[in-house]
Amino acid sequence: MSDNDDQNDDQNDEQGVRFGAGGVLRGADPARLLDLAQSADELGFDLFSLSDHLHTEQPTLEPWTALSWLAAKTTRIRLGTNVLGLPYRAPAVLAKSAETFDRLSGGRLVIGLGAGGYDHEFEAFGLTVRTPGAKITAQREAIRILRELWAGGPVDFTGEQFQVSGARIDPLPEHRIPIWLGSYGPRALKLTGQVADGWLPSFGRIDLAQAVAMREVVRAAAVEAGRDPDSITCAANFTTRVDPGQVSRPGLVTGSVDEVVRQVVEVVRAGFTFLQLAPQSVAEQEVLAREVFPAVRAEVG
Which of 68, 112, 151, 289 is the most exposed place for a label (fewest CB within 10 A)? Predict the structure, then answer.
């Protein structure tokens, strides 16, 4: 077994809660981005991710490029997309990009993949805008192309949304590259349970009660597909601030350290063990790592 295989097995170990930084970051300052990623790496965060909004009214960074730069400037933290908009990149091209990124980063890539929820972004770039049903079909086909190319080629596939003919990549990945889906609708949730390695919803778009119900759909679909539902990482995006002067609202967990710990523990006990907390400063990351993480882990064992 290679070192990457060892690392991948450890990364998929679902014993205990894990924490992520990054996500949707305000602004596009490279110095700030580097400070956040290196701080998260040093403080023991498990994942640093970036969102994928290329057409916006606010400054943004293209995630593949930015994460590749961060991979060379960090050592242990996993790096992920949160989440890629499928229309931006052809699946076969994504397969090659992902293999290269994963190899050069030492096996630290997690692909968060979305079907494409913001149609105006893709329309602005002259890209395919799909119906809701076609989006799920495209996502299923894209995952099939990714996995078949990673397994070896050549790959021939003709689907409703994508096709490849004799496609292949070399070298092949040294281990399974995790694919997490940001999904919400019934068909998308079932697809997650059938084929994905993880589920990554964003609180604020849904509340905890809705997330719990959706998680059951994912797990039931996994069982129906003959998979172990516990093999699917259940992650969650929400913003976390230790600020006694603020009040929590959908998508924002805040308050004193004790109040934040209580709310995060509630999410973990609901079945979500990989928490993307979106701290916006190094100081916030330090407070989370030194005061919140140990308390949460002590509560949930």
Answer: 151
Cis peptide bond N-terminal to 154, omega within 30: yes
Cβ(212)–Cβ(203) under 8 Å? Answer: no
pLDDT digits (tens, 9 = 90+) for 266-281: 999 999 999 999 999 9
**Cα(197)–Cα(181) distance, integer angstroms:** 8
pTM, two decimals, is 0.94
For 177-211, write each residue's pLDDT tens digit: 999 999 999 999 999 999 999 999 999 999 999 99
pLDDT for the residue 15: 57
Contact 208, 272 (CB under 8 A): no
HEC-encoded secondary structure of the chain:
CCHHHHHHHHHCCCCCCEEEEEECCCCCCHHHHHHHHHHHHHHCCCEEEECCCCCCCCCCCCHHHHHHHHHCCCCCCEEEECCEEHHHCCHHHHHHHHHHHHHHCCCCEEEEEECCCCHHHHHHCCCCCCCHHHHHHHHHHHHHHHHHHHHCCCEEEECCCCEEEEECCCCCCCCCCCEEECCCCHHHHHHHHHHCCEECCEECCECHHHHHHHHHHHHHHHHHCCCCHHHCEEEEECEEEECCCCCCECCEEEECHHHHHHHHHHHHHCCCCEEECCCCCHHHHHHHHHHHHHHHHHHHC
Share of the chain above pLDDT 70, in %: 95
**Full set of structural domains in the chain with CATH:** 3-300 (3.20.20.30)
Sign of the Cα torsion 244, 246, 248, 253 reads negative
